[in-house]
Design a protein that fits this description.
By secondary structure, the protein is of the alpha/beta class. Helices cover 32% and strands 12% of the residues. The strands form two sheets. The protein has a six-stranded mixed β-sheet with strand order 1-5-4-7-3-8, covered by helices on one side. Strands 2-6 form a two-stranded antiparallel sheet. A hairpin with a 5-residue loop joins strand 4 and strand 5.
């Protein structure tokens, strides 16, 4: 699974641009639904034209990532761009939009929720972003947490709750100290054993996963922890 860069391929507003930020300011990932039946190209066209967000049109697709119905992950903006996807939370968050029209609180149109391809892609993307930005699973939200009840819909809200639960369970399988000790014995980690899930530890986990044909996302999930435990010296 991979992320397709469409930042420069999707048309931009002729004059408007996003404000910029430092990536270290990102503290949240907020998940949305389209509330329609188009695709990312169509949503981008709507966003750069006069619309409900801005009568002047927006600079570009208003989320950082979009997930098509076939599970394709599109990156439409740089993480340094402050896009307009969640009022009062744009400056410190990443926006992810799932294409589709899903049932949510106060909104009974459309289908029940995203399909399996979209949910698999969402999990891949969210785990990768959390790892790259050194954020916790508790930093993942739905737009419904910030004043938009119907977005991202019942099914995706349930996925977020389940994701947090699964990650809280798997992250407790091995302590950071234990992981660092094992990774150090495998010559994959050179820093101090201090219990801090720092970038060096995450990089070592990714390298371990890559060497053992696991998805190199930096998360010590059940499969990764089991394999690490079996290699304990």
């Amino acid at each position: 699974m991979k992320i397709v860069d469409r930042i420069n391929q999707l048309p931009w507003h002729p004059t408007r641009v996003w404000q910029k930020r430092d990536i270290n300011s990102i503290k949240k990932i907020i998940i949305h639904q389209e509330l329609g039946n188009s695709n990312i190209k169509g949503v981008n066209k709507y966003h750069i034209s006069p619309n409900h967000i801005s009568k002047r049109g927006c600079p570009h697709f208003c989320y950082h990532f979009g997930i098509e119905k076939d599970g394709t992950i599109i990156q439409a903006n740089s993480l340094k761009d402050i896009t307009w996807h969640a009022t009062n939370h744009n400056s410190d968050s990443i926006g992810i939009m799932l294409v589709g029209n899903f049932k949510g609180k106060g909104y009974d149109l459309g289908v029940s929720g995203p399909n399996n391809d979209q949910l698999k892609a969402l999990e891949f993307l969210v785990k990768g972003l959390l790892s790259d930005l050194n954020l916790s699973y508790n930093n993942v939200y739905g737009h419904s947490d910030f004043g938009k009840p119907a977005c991202p819909g019942y099914a995706t809200d349930n996925w977020i709750s389940d994701f947090r639960k699964r990650m809280s369970q798997t992250r407790n399988l091995l302590s950071v100290n234990e992981m660092q000790t094992i990774l150090k014995s495998l010559n994959l980690y050179d820093s101090e054993i201090d219990g801090d899930l720092n970038p060096e530890t995450i990089a070592a986990i990714k390298e371990f996963q890559f060497k053992n044909n696991l998805t190199p996302n930096g998360f010590a999930d059940n499969e990764t922890c089991d394999l690490l435990r079996n290699m304990r010296v």
